[in-house]
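User: Quick sanity check before I run a bigger batch. Here is a single chain. Can you write out its predicted 3D structure?
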Amino acid sequence: MARRPELLTRTWFVAKYPTGMEAVAEATFDDLAGPGRPHVDASSIRNDLAKLGHIAKKVKVYVDQHVAHAAATPTANVPTYAELVSASDAFDSLLRRYYLMIEGSSLLQTTPVKQYPFLRPLAVAWVPND
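Assistant: Done. Predicted structure follows.
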């Protein structure tokens, strides 16, 4: 998106809305791109990525060393709860913003929802005893 922001145009965005909702679409695009702008600005996309990277850096370093790659000698400290919440909130905010920008609709919820019966796979013996 940052390399080709001119593809996220006002015209394209407004066309996603139903007939009669053009004023809402225009106002929404103004909020996303800036009043009257023809397309989203690449610098705002880069700023969002940088902000997310900065906020989530400690979490990413920890995950890279301890979860994703299981480093032989990990050095990252465990992120604090506040750091996890901050990273999660930043991601949530950007997810909502870019989902709206691309889909033209908003997400009501971004928190995963348990699908029932979610414990059923644990009730089946998957590995033979022999």
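DSSP finds four helices and no strands in the chain.

User: Great, the batch can go ahead then.
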